[in-house]
Write a structure and sequence with these properties.
The chain is 36% helix and 20% strand. With 293 residues, the chain is an alpha+beta fold.
C-alpha cells in the first residue's frame, strides 16, 4: 500500500479522535441529566444510565425555567450584538492585511471559541464513596467531599471552621453560643433557609457508642438539605462551621421523632486551605452568622 493511500485514513482517524475529545463533555452533560442522584456520584462512573430518568418536564414546571431561559436569551443576544459591533473592525483589519501572523491570530480566536471559559474545580479530598441510597451509622462520618474553586468566589464570605468534640460543642452551647442549621430542602432549590430551632444531642442519651465523627440532632431535615451547614453563633452573631448535614432518620427508641444526621467538621479540617478555629470549649469563647431564625 502506498503512503499516499494511507495518509487520508490517518488524518481521518486523528480527526475522529479530536472530535471525540471535544464532543465528550457535551455527551457527558446529557447522559448525566438522565441519571438519578445516586448514580451521578457513583464510582466508577457509568457511561450510560442504568435507569434513565426523564425529569425535564418536572424541572420546567417546578422552577420556572421559561423565565431563566428568557433571561439567558436576552443576555446572549445583547452580548452577541456588542461583540459583533466591536469585533467587526478587528475582523476587517485581519482580512485586509495578510501576513504570517494573521493565520496564527485567527487560529487563536477559533480556539477561544471552541474552549468555553470555566472555573477550575480541584478535588482536595473525600470521606468515602457511598454506593447505597441509605446512610448507615458508620457511613455518616464519610459523607463529605472538599473541592476548591479557582478563581475563588469573592462575593461569598468564607466561614471559619471549628474543630470540636461533641462534648465541646455542648459546652459552648451551654456557655451562650447558639446552634443553627441551614439547607436548601425547606423552600426554593436556590434559596438557603435556616431551620427551626433544634438541639444537638448527646450520644449517651441516645444509647449510641460515643463517636465524635458524626453528629445527631433533633432537627427535621428534608431532601435537599444535605451539605447544608451546622453552625455555632457567638454573642456577636458570628458563625463557625462545626459540621455539615448528611441525612435524616428517626430516633433509636421512638420512630415517630425525627433524627438529623451530620458530619463533624473535624473529619475534613485537614483538607481545608483556610484558617481553622482551634478554640477550646471555654466560656465566652468567640467562635463565630446566619440571620436569626
Amino acid at each position: 500500500m502506498r503512503t499516499g493511500s494511507v495518509k487520508p485514513f490517518i488524518l481521518l482517524g486523528l480527526a475522529l479522535v479530536f472530535a471525540g475529545i471535544y464532543l465528550f463533555p457535551l455527551y457527558w452533560m446529557y447522559v448525566t441529566a438522565l441519571k438519578s442522584g445516586t448514580e451521578i456520584f457513583a464510582f466508577p462512573p457509568s457511561f450510560w444510565p442504568t435507569d434513565p430518568q426523564w425529569q425535564f418536564g418536572r424541572i420546567f414546571a417546578e422552577h420556572a425555567m421559561d423565565r431563566y431561559l428568557w433571561n439567558s436569551l436576552l443576555i446572549a443576544a445583547g452580548t452577541t450584538a456588542v461583540a459583533t459591533l466591536i469585533g467587526t473592525g478587528a475582523a476587517y483589519a485581519l482580512s485586509r492585511h495578510r501576513n504570517a501572523w494573521t493565520a496564527v491570530a485567527l487560529f487563536l480566536v477559533l480556539m477561544l471559541q471552541v474552549l468555553p471559559p470555566s472555573r477550575g474545580v480541584a478535588y482536595l479530598g473525600q470521606g468515602a464513596v457511598l454506593r447505597a441510597g441509605k446512610l448507615r451509622n458508620e457511613d455518616v462520618a464519610k459523607d463529605w467531599v472538599v473541592l476548591q474553586i479557582s478563581p475563588p468566589v469573592t462575593a461569598v464570605q468564607p466561614i471559619a471552621v471549628a474543630r470540636l468534640t461533641i462534648d465541646g460543642m455542648l459546652h459552648m452551647i451551654g456557655s451562650g453560643n447558639r446552634l443553627v442549621t441551614a439547607g436548601y430542602g425547606s423552600g426554593p432549590y436556590d434559596e438557603l433557609r435556616v431551620h427551626e430551632k433544634c438541639r444537638l444531642l448527646s450520644q449517651r442519651e441516645l444509647g449510641i457508642f460515643p463517636d465524635d465523627s458524626w453528629l445527631q440532632l433533633d432537627c427535621v431535615f428534608r431532601v435537599g438539605d444535605s451539605g447544608g451547614g451546622i453552625l455555632l453563633l457567638d454573642g456577636a452573631n458570628q458563625p463557625a462551621l462545626i459540621g455539615i448535614i448528611a441525612g435524616f432518620g428517626h430516633m433509636p427508641h421512638n420512630k415517630s421523632e425525627p433524627l438529623g444526621l451530620g458530619v463533624n467538621a473535624s473529619q475534613f479540617v485537614p483538607y481545608l486551605r483556610q484558617p481553622v478555629s482551634q478554640a477550646a470549649p471555654a466560656p465566652a469563647t468567640s467562635l463565630a452568622g446566619l440571620p436569626s431564625d
